[in-house]
Specification:
This protein is mainly beta. It has a single domain, classed as Deoxyuridine triphosphatase (dUTPase) (Deoxyuridine 5'-Triphosphate Nucleotidohydrolase, Chain A), CATH 2.70.40. The chain has 1 helix and 10 strands. The strands form 3 sheets. It has a 4-stranded antiparallel sheet. The radius of gyration is 19 Å and the shape is globular.
Length: 144
């Protein structure tokens, strides 16, 4: 699939690290370091602007290495970039660790996955078909 992109960053275009990678790492495109204190969140620009085809979205997800090693994650994970959005791709990072984290220009801050999605058409009804699970939720499947 071809996706139109404007790269106003100082960095190369995102790419897949391996042949079977689902996501591409995005890099911070910032003038100055950003300090994220414990339990603090911040918005980090990438300098990328996308034209995603209709019927698709770009999902912004945490990088597993940052999450496990540093406690840094994407706050609204996965974040969705809609096909009609034309602004800069920015990432909401949060520091869930007990240590200060510093984002530097060019750091890989998240990954992006392009995914197909469907549009729902609501059908108003008075009842729903029964299922084996029924109304059980929030831990229901772990009970015997």
């Amino acid at each position: 699939m071809k996706v139109r992109i404007i790269n106003k960053s100082k960095h190369d275009l995102p790419d897949y690290a391996t042949a079977f990678s689902a996501g591409m790492d995005l890099r911070a495109n910032i003038e100055n370091d950003i300090v994220i204190n414990p339990l603090e969140r911040t918005l980090v620009g990438t300098g990328l602007y996308l034209e995603i085809p209709e019927g698709y979205e770009a999902q912004i997800r945490p990088r597993s290495g940052l999450a496990i090693k540093r406690g840094i994650t994407v706050l609204n994970s996965p974040g969705t970039i809609d096909a009609d959005y034309r602004g800069e791709v920015c990432v909401i990072l949060i520091n869930l660790s007990q240590e200060i984290f510093v984002v530097k220009d060019g750091d890989r801050i998240c990954q992006m996955v392009i995914a197909k999605h469907e549009k729902a058409e609501w059908v108003s009804v008075d009842t729903l078909f029964n299922s084996e699970r029924g109304e059980g939720g929030f831990g229901h499947t772990g009970k015997k």
